[in-house]
């Protein structure tokens, strides 16, 4: 779990119906306009209204396309009218792909005042996709310096925000060097770094670019945006970037979304309210999918804005090229089957939209095969930004979108389960948000994410995870306490599984490094077990030892007791007395049976560890302390004294055990106090004893428990075993020397 990965969405082939994204008439039919609040009655039909608005949009685009001379906004009512039309339609339902070429050209050409250009750029809200040609054409205006620096800056912010709506990226990648030249501008540098971060491929990393970034860092200091780009460069070409960079991910870039994100979200919500079945904002999928908020826009691969004929021509060209070249990239939107992945894995290029990988198992398999760290860095950056922006309890305005955020967290959790690895971006999100979390919002999803936190140092986990979680744990309901314990059990299992996987993959030459890793793992796992033992002890006292809570606590220790044999981890930690004795004296047979099984597994692991220590000629790095054996023996004496020899009050030697003076016991006025907790009189077992007496002596209604002795005692044991108490069975057979039965005559003493 040192490295995390991600899953992705199945890419659907571009269907013929994708023309709905580019054909203006089709876009017009899908759009809806929210009526003014003052208009109650006599509204024109929706189609008529859409036709009218579309007509005015076409007029506005025609006007801006033909404008030549500098026009004053205050003095020209026609300009005001068309500008208002573009803004209104953009905010209501977004602009069609055809509008971007016209509006970008006029905004960046310098023909109009900056006030008009600013309003035009802020109105560039996509309804579906943005043609790459329109973006490339607009970038060309930056070469001639026709627009002001503020307009260039606003254009870059817009380009970053809508980057995932651009249908293709190949021509933009060709402009990488052009964008790189803008790094010398201090105001534009943060946004240029952000754009370059999105565009960077391995072939983009050149020695002269690394030197330029290092020079800028020496001049400006340790700027987060420069560190981000250098980190990506170092992943692609570590031999070129030799400086030490921060290992922890943080918020690298400034928020560049401006008004566009809010407008896109508003359009999606409005379209979903007006048309719950059809989703006009779905980008190029064969079947409509949820497009509620920005994070969800990443779950698919946007379709091209080219028509079907051009698409077929492109595919035919690719088939011809494939016959002669193995370097031609395979379009990710054409990836449909696992066999396609195997055939084209060396030619597959990851999409620029990292969010599109979250629910795509084929791209997930690709990530597992191709050890490209840049993929993970890009994914973590995107997920970190999205989690931070969409968190419903960290951002006040997001509380209305709790269900959408739940879906996103659920997707992140399922992705980690598929990959069997935790995401560092999810870890950092939890560390930042848990102190602010109320324990109710997205409870199930948050606790599931906790179970996939990757291995960290104890100091980090204590302050960022254990402390805030403990505060919520002690002040929340019984159900919440059980949910937290279940989550921490899964976290422990995930760590142990990670250890087993990496242990199997290590060669003999890596023993030294693996020992170092093992030492850290042992320490972190031990702290987690101690933490769970502490909160479990307190919780049992707070809740008055409920059986429901005790089940989850013992379930956790079922994993702990088998760590040595099942997971090959040289660590065993006994449950605290505050857990052991409530389980031993529980009123429920399930809890007692669980405890018996746990103690049996502890014995099996400790015996194996002792034999291993004695048989090894070389000194082992890890040995169980004598305190572990001593504590186990104390617990075993208490259990045998309770369940078998009826001597717990006399022989229990644990400092927090059951030992009491006979005089004190007599004051309780309890009859036969010595046998109160054996397998006949124990509160958890008395129901079985009653049923046994009814079957053995059906005519006796006195329920004389003293009849269960001698041969009847053995019959009673067989009866208990037949009732499914397997934990009790293996405990008695392994830890109690029953001289009366030959099959058990060789059983060892209870002490290891």
UniProtKB/TrEMBL annotation:
<comment type="similarity">
    <text>Belongs to the CENP-I/CTF3 family.</text>
</comment>
<keyword id="KW-0539">Nucleus</keyword>
<feature type="compositionally biased region" description="Polar residues">
    <location>
        <begin position="9"/>
        <end position="24"/>
    </location>
</feature>
<protein>
    <submittedName>
        <fullName>CENPI protein</fullName>
    </submittedName>
</protein>
<dbReference type="GO" id="GO:0034080">
    <property type="term" value="P:CENP-A containing chromatin assembly"/>
</dbReference>
<dbReference type="Pfam" id="PF07778">
    <property type="entry name" value="CENP-I"/>
</dbReference>
<feature type="region of interest" description="Disordered">
    <location>
        <begin position="1"/>
        <end position="52"/>
    </location>
</feature>
<feature type="compositionally biased region" description="Basic and acidic residues">
    <location>
        <begin position="26"/>
        <end position="50"/>
    </location>
</feature>
<keyword id="KW-0158">Chromosome</keyword>
<dbReference type="GO" id="GO:0000070">
    <property type="term" value="P:mitotic sister chromatid segregation"/>
</dbReference>
<keyword id="KW-0137">Centromere</keyword>
<dbReference type="GO" id="GO:0005634">
    <property type="term" value="C:nucleus"/>
</dbReference>
<dbReference type="GO" id="GO:0000939">
    <property type="term" value="C:inner kinetochore"/>
</dbReference>
<dbReference type="InterPro" id="IPR012485">
    <property type="entry name" value="CENP-I"/>
</dbReference>
């Amino acid at each position: 779990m040192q490295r995390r990965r991600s899953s992705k969405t199945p890419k659907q082939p571009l269907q013929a119906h994708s023309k709905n994204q580019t054909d203006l008439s089709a876009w017009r039919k899908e759009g809806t306009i929210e009526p003014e609040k003052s208009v109650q009655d006599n509204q024109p039909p929706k189609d008529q209204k859409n036709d009218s608005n579309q007509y005015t949009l076409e007029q506005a685009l025609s006007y801006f396309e033909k404008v030549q001379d500098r026009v004053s906004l205050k003095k020209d009512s026609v300009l005001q009218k068309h500008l208002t039309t573009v803004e209104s339609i953009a905010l209501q339902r977004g602009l069609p792909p055809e509008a971007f070429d016209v509006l970008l050209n006029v905004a960046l050409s310098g023909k109009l005042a900056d006030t008009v250009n600013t309003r035009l750029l802020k109105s560039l809200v996509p309804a579906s996709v943005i043609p790459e040609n329109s973006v490339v054409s607009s970038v060309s205006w930056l070469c001639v310096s026709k627009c002001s620096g503020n307009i260039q800056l606003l254009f870059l912010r817009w380009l970053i925000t809508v980057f995932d709506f651009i249908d293709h990226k190949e021509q933009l990648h060709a402009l990488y060097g052009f964008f790189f030249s803008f790094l010398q501008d201090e105001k534009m540098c943060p946004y240029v770094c952000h754009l370059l971060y999105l565009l960077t491929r391995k072939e983009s990393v050149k020695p002269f670019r690394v030197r330029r970034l290092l020079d800028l860092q020496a001049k400006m200091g340790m700027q987060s945006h420069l560190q981000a780009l250098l980190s990506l460069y170092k992943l692609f070409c570590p031999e070129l970037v030799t400086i030490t960079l921060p290992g922890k991910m943080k918020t690298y870039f400034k928020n560049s979304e401006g008004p566009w994100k809010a407008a896109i979200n508003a359009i999606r919500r409005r379209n979903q309210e007006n048309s719950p079945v059809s989703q006009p904002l779905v980008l190029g999928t064969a079947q409509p999918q949820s497009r509620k908020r920005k994070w969800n826009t990443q779950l698919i691969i946007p379709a091209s804005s080219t028509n079907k004929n051009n698409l077929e021509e492109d595919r035919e060209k690719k088939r011809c090229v494939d016959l002669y070249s193995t370097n031609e990239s395979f379009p990710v939107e054409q990836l449909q089957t696992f066999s396609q992945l195997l055939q084209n894995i060396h030619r597959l290029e990851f999409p620029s939209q990292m969010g599109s990988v979250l629910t795509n198992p084929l791209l997930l398999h690709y990530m597992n095969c191709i050890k490209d760290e840049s993929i993970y860095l890009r994914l973590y950056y995107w997920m970190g930004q999205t989690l931070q922006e969409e968190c419903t309890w960290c951002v006040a305005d997001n509380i209305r979108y709790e269900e959408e955020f739940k879906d996103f967290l659920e997707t992140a959790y399922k992705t980690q389960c598929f990959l069997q690895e935790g995401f560092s971006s999810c870890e950092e999100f939890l560390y930042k948000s848990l102190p602010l979390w109320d324990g109710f919002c997205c409870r199930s999803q948050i606790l599931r994410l906790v179970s996939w936190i990757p291995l960290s140092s104890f100091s980090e986990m204590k302050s960022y995870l254990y402390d805030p979680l403990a505060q919520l744990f002690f002040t929340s309901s019984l159900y919440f306490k059980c949910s937290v314990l279940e989550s921490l059990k899964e976290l422990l299992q995930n760590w142990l599984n990670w250890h087993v996987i990496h242990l199997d993959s290590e060669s003999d030459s890596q023993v030294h490094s693996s020992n170092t890793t093992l030492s850290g793992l042992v320490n972190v796992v031990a702290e987690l077990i101690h933490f769970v033992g502490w909160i479990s002890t307190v919780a049992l006292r707070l809740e008055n030892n409920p059986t429901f809570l005790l089940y989850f606590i013992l379930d956790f220790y079922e994993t702990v007791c088998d760590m040595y044999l099942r997971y090959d981890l040289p660590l065993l930690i006994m449950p605290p007395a505050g857990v052991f004795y409530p389980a031993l004296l529980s009123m429920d047979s399930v809890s007692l049976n669980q405890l018996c099984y746990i103690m049996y597994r502890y014995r099996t692991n400790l015996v194996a560890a002792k034999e291993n220590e004695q048989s090894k000629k070389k000194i082992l790095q890890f040995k169980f302390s004598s305190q572990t054996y001593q504590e186990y023996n104390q617990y075993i004496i208490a259990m045998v004294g309770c369940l078998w020899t009826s001597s717990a009050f006399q022989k229990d030697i644990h400092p927090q055990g059951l030992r009491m003076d006979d005089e004190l016991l007599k004051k309780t006025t309890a009859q036969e106090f010595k046998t109160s907790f054996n397998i006949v009189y124990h509160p958890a077992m008395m129901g079985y004893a009653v049923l046994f007496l009814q079957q053995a002596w059906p005519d006796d209604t006195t329920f004389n428990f003293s009849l269960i002795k001698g041969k009847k005692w053995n019959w009673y044991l067989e009866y208990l075993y037949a009732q499914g108490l397997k934990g009790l069975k293996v405990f008695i057979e392994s830890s109690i020397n029953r001289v009366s039965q030959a099959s058990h005559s060789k059983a060892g003493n209870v002490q290891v």
